[in-house]
Amino acid sequence: MATFLKNKTISVIFLSLASMVALGWTLKQDDETNYIKLDKAALKKDSIASVMAFKNVYKVLMSPRCVNCHPKGDVPLQGDDSHLHVMAPKRGLDGKGVYAMKCTNCHQPKNTPGQHTPPGNPDWHLPPADMKMVFEGRTAHELAKQLVDPAQNGNKNIKKLKEHADDALVLAGWNPGEGRTLPPMSHAEFKKEWLTWLNNGAYAPAK
Amino acid sequence: MITLNVNNKTYQVDVSPDMPLLWVVRDTLGLTGTKFGCGVAQCGACVLHLDGEAVRSCVTKVSRAEGKKIITIEGLSANNDHPAQLAWEEIDVPQCGYCHSGQIMSAAVLLRENPKPTDKDIDDAMSGNICRCGTYPRVRKAIHLAAEMQEKDKK
Lengths: 207, 155
Hints:
Mean pLDDT of chain A: 87
Shape of chain A: globular
Radius of gyration of chain B: 15 Å
CATH superfamily of the largest domain in chain B: Beta-grasp domain
Largest interface: A-B, 20 and 26 residues
Helix content of chain A: 40-55%
Oligomer: heterodimer
Helix content of chain B: 40-55%
Radius of gyration of chain A: 30 Å
CATH architecture of the largest domain in chain B: Roll
Number of domains of chain B: 2
CATH topology of the largest domain in chain B: Ubiquitin-like (UB roll)
Strand content of chain A: under 5%
Strand content of chain B: 5-15%
């Protein structure tokens, strides 16, 4: 009998301890510090969708209509074969040319009529010398990383990058003047892919 | 009617707003110093100054020039004595001469923005002005001389 009581006491103590541990564990589950928060922003990130969208974005950015004004050198490119611009106009500090060779000396506010005549835009220019924003020769991985880096993209945050899809010079790529091919998709399709890339985390494709 | 300020004079011209500025300057105002070369901004023969910039007037619509200051080769100086004009004469730069109004107008912008241009600066500034006679070495020499003349004038 004594042994039975002793065993029962031990069982009660054991069960009590087990209950306390279980209760403590349960309480700990509700503890904020141990709670796995679901970040809404993180939920929106989708690296696969982002990278897939950037593949299409990259096709546009590497088309002559975009890359010609994002050269690796200080002379813009020209034509569907992206040759160096005839007359070799130079970038200049502000990207608007130098001396008698400023962009808007030839590039008018609107396209000049005729095959291969100067395309127009009121703000025709290259990126400035202190932030060249080179597209030419960049891999998809390199360009994606560059585009989201404010130190390399013209100090743009994600909001400004989204707005940039409707920039007048970006839109000019789809109104290039006579004798020039268009980018490989419509502006609406490009904008959709651009926003999909950014909204899903702006992931860079693998190297 | 379009109002233009050309060589510090005001003109009223009855032309289409889309007419090239070169046509207005030459055919309407009779200022024939500015030349027609290629008509598509490739040669530089038609360069004049629009608010001080060396604009190609063959592709510039006259509407762009409204309210701006237009200077042609005839108005570059009071007595054909801009340093570039004097240097051009001194070096005897032209051969046929057709492109040299444009050459001088481009050189004038360079000399204003860079009073002591190097050979590279000259190439960067003048690479859009084509000379069929190949007077480029004399153009370069004349710009260096014009820079010296301009410097002396300041002293």
